[in-house]
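anyone seen this seq b4? input:
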Amino acid sequence: MKIINNPPKKDWNALLQRPTQTVDDIESTVTQIFEDVQRNKDISISKYTQLFDGVSLENIIVSLEEINTAIAEVSDALKVAIQQAKSNIEVFHAAQKTDKVVIETSPGVTCWQEKRPIQKVGLYIPGGTAPLFSTVLMLAVPAQIAGCEEIVLCSPPNKEGKIHAAILYAAQLCGITKIIKVGGIQAIAGMTFGTETIPQVSKIFGPGNQFVTVAKQLAIKFGVAIDMPAGPSELLVMADASANASYVAADLLSQAEHGADSQVILVATSQEFIDQVSKEVTQQLLLLPRKELAQKAMDNSKAIFVATDETALALINEYGPEHFIVCTHNNEYYLENIENAGSVFIGNYTPESVGDYASGTNHTLPTNGFSKAYSGVNLDSFLKSITFQEITQEGILNIGNTIEVMAAAEGLQAHKNAVTVRLNDLQ
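predicted toks r here
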């Protein structure tokens, strides 16, 4: 970790840069694959699966036999863990349901809002160096609660042409029946345009690498919505001398092991504590099976000393972390004033891992500073809000003249006339 002491505010922007390629670096590749999939559909899907995943598949749809085999392969202990996590996620997301909102804005003018599920959604589940079966729960559970009619799950195959057994187990546990062995840019393109095998969807969910993130952003240009730009994982920990250095080091490494393009940042008001954490990171890193990946991420990470809580908070809000852990003697100050964060973890006994797996909150969160404008995935992500209005004779008499005056002022005579013909009948 690079240690920085009291950086001036003018340097914050450069200091807080993510270790990711710019969109310009990879957009041409993404665009090329999109155009190919749009033209050639399954033929292109097969081509890029062979190119990027190193496997040629006759059928990319996961069969019932494959699902049953996967269920048998998953250990009983892991099944119990997945079921408990699913239960907590269900409880938290079901609690997010809201009632219909009805209001009479003026006599005879009734307006209301109701929510409807997005009918067709696509879930992208990364494979890569870590099969994220937990992400299946984070996306499929709220999709089911929302009542989405068609849920398509795409995940890259391994060299044997299989999807990790735990991913398939979690998918079937959540009632997902359309599971497709395709990953990366081609998966996003397939769900954007639709192919002979992959259904076209209205909204795409799920994290991924930089290429997947750019692909999702490109999908928007073709009329497909996305949950958010969710790229490489990141964590910022705010700590002072009251925190536990061993815990903080473990938290930093938990995100660093995601991959070389992940980033972790420690902000602290104690230089001595930074030194303690640095030593703990070095010791704990050596014991990790994924230490090479974690080391690369740590090379891009920083420990920043600041003198005051006020400075720390301003820097954190400027960064807009995906995950934010606060372990200080003054947690309430940060909780009351944090403005930009995907998800917040409070105190010594709330590691970021609990949100990744089983507390019930969603781990699909905005990265790259997008927490300044985006929320993490929640039940509303799978719903649309539709407004309704019903106007009685009394109502149109009450607001009709207002509409006429405003429409005339905007030069929209037909808008005015649509009210005037009704008022003439009533007067």
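The radius of gyration is 25 Å. The chain has three domains: 2-19+232-360, 23-228, 392-426. kinda curious what u guys think
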